[in-house]
Amino acid sequence: MADMSPIFRRKAAQDASEVPDAPRAPQDRLVTLIRKPGCHLCDDAQVVVERVCGELGVPWEQKDITQDEELNRLYWEQIPVVLVDGAQHTFWRVNEDRLRKALS
């Protein structure tokens, strides 16, 4: 791409970004549940995340916003928040079918 004009380089980069990523194996995915203690919506979200990830073989983790200033700053009004491979998937209520579809 180095010998292309800036217009063609930009178009080539845009075209490359439009190509969907190859499907990833379940064990190569990661779901992160961002929550805080005593949050009933967080407890509900955890049940859904555990069920879907367990069925699909996708690893998951949870992070406590009371223990991480950056997460608290980013998500304190949205918890629980679910990230899929580091990108925000949903917040407040987790839809089981939507999460399953995102991971399949």
Automatic annotation (TrEMBL):
Domain of life: Bacteria
SUPFAM superfamilies: Thioredoxin-like
PANTHER family: GLUTAREDOXIN-LIKE PROTEIN C5ORF63 HOMOLOG (PTHR33558:SF1)
Protein name listed in UniProt: Glutaredoxin family protein
